[in-house]
UniProtKB/TrEMBL annotation:
Name of this chain's protein: Siderophore-interacting protein
Domain FAD-binding FR-type: residue ranges: 15-114
GO molecular function: oxidoreductase activity
Source superkingdom: Bacteria
Pfam families named in the record: FAD_binding_9, SIP
PROSITE patterns per the UniProt record, alphabetical: FAD_FR (PS51384)
Provenance organism: Corallococcus llansteffanensis
């Protein structure tokens, strides 16, 4: 049975959502697919790197994605869909095909970089690949990411294609891997004084790493956007 949110989305979608068509579906790896969408409603939307859109999945409700890119004149955007487990979003990502209609709300502000050319040090996970790519390519920033991932083999093709190969650390039991993530972040911040620290992905990891970095004397206030938390489907 469709949820109340899904039913509400179906009604509101007629008035608020932007319609687009899937023009290309590409298998990046067994864990990721890239979807390209186009439509007149996507023109002139004022997208900035780091913005989010909420995709309406019929009968399921809304799922949030960060576009890889957005062509304002052509009316086109691309998403990198993480095929994680049997979640509704992953099922949609596996089943969607060229010619399907995709409705979404947005773009809306999510992570906004300050004006200027300062480099970016970014922590995240599989849900953060797109925002790191958008900051590097569309915002033209020097981005040094450190990603925690569940399976490096699944992620390598996507990271290689995005230019972030080797920037991942595989998760370990009890979050033991966060010691290595912390060390990489600390080294990156020391190598790039004045860098903007951006923290995304899993809420519990963000909290633990912020505490460790504060212990190092890191005084800069990071830009934080938790995309999900253990025990919850999503936060955004």
């Amino acid at each position: 049975m469709a949820s109340a949110k899904a039913l509400l989305g179906s009604v509101l979608g007629r008035f608020l959502f932007h319609d687009s068509k899937v023009t290309q579906v590409r298998e990046v790896s067994r864990a990721f697919r890239q979807l390209d969408c186009e439509g007149p409603a996507l023109r002139g939307q004022g997208w900035t790197p780091g913005d989010k859109v909420q995709v309406y999945l019929p009968g399921l409700g809304m799922r949030t994605y960060t576009p890889l890119s957005w062509d304002e004149q052509r009316g086109a955007t691309s998403f990198l869909v993480y095929l994680h487990g049997d979640s509704p979003g992953a099922k949609w990502g596996r089943d969607v095909k060229v010619g399907d209609t995709v409705q979404f709300f947005g773009p809306r502000r999510s992570l906004v970089l300050d004006e200027g050319p300062s480099p970016v040090v970014l922590f995240g996970d599989e849900t953060s690949f797109a925002v790191a790519h958008a900051f590097r390519t569309a915002a033209k920033r020097d981005v040094t990411p450190v990603f925690e991932v569940s399976n490096r083999e699944d992620c390598q093709p996507a990271l290689r294609e995005l230019g972030f190969e080797g920037q991942d650390v595989e998760r370990q039991a009890g979050d033991a891997h966060l010691a290595q993530v912390h060390e990489r972040l600390r080294e990156a911040l020391r190598a790039k004084p004045g860098a903007t620290l951006v923290m995304t992905g899993r809420a519990q990891s963000i909290q633990a790493l912020r505490s460790r970095l504060k212990g190092d004397g890191e005084r800069a206030t990071p830009k934080v956007k938790a995309y999900w938390a253990v025990g919850k489907a999503g936060l955004d």
